[in-house]
Amino acid sequence: MGKSDTSIFHPLTLAILTVSDRRTHEDDTSGDLLKNLATEAGHQVVERKLLPNNRYQLRACVSQWIAGNEVQVVLINGGTGFSEGNSTVEALQPLFDREVPGFGELFRQLSYQQLGSSALQSGAIGGLANQTLVIAVPGSGNACELAWHELIQPQLDSRTRPCSFYSHLKPVEAQRETNLCKN
């Protein structure tokens, strides 16, 4: 996978959502990691939230971002595992206009190299909804870092060839300062 030397980098607007019954804003290390990685890559984090493992709250939050005009990419960490109560993947599927099956497949393949057969229980999903890319990965820092470097960052970069998700995303006219929500 390469990058075009003549293309211009186009920063995107992102929302980051942590799904956890245990994390707080003070110890949301995976959310912090994703925010830092996105910002270092040149993107703008315009929303950030932390929600419990509740599929209906998750759907409501993500639906607002999908329906709005400000967020081009939603990055979700947590609530994707096989444990009872985790429902991020199931909550997101009905929202997608088009699922990106390769995202989960490639994530599990990469995870298998580190975790062996335990990767079978790694939930990860991606999809497009109203020209918004929605990606969910496990809540561990290692999983977030792996997904970002190997899959997410290259696909958010408009210069990635032969293709990236940039051309599938809604245009955003006005960008604003980061808003750390208390929800």
UniProtKB/TrEMBL annotation:
GO terms for cellular component: cytosol. Residues 15-159 form the MoaB/Mog domain. Keywords: Molybdenum cofactor biosynthesis. GO terms for biological process: Mo-molybdopterin cofactor biosynthetic process. Pathway: Cofactor biosynthesis; molybdopterin biosynthesis. CDD domains: MogA_MoaB. It comes from the Bacteria. NCBIfam families: moaB_proteo, molyb_syn. Belongs to the MoaB/Mog family. May be involved in the biosynthesis of molybdopterin. This is Molybdenum cofactor biosynthesis protein B. It comes from Marinobacter persicus.
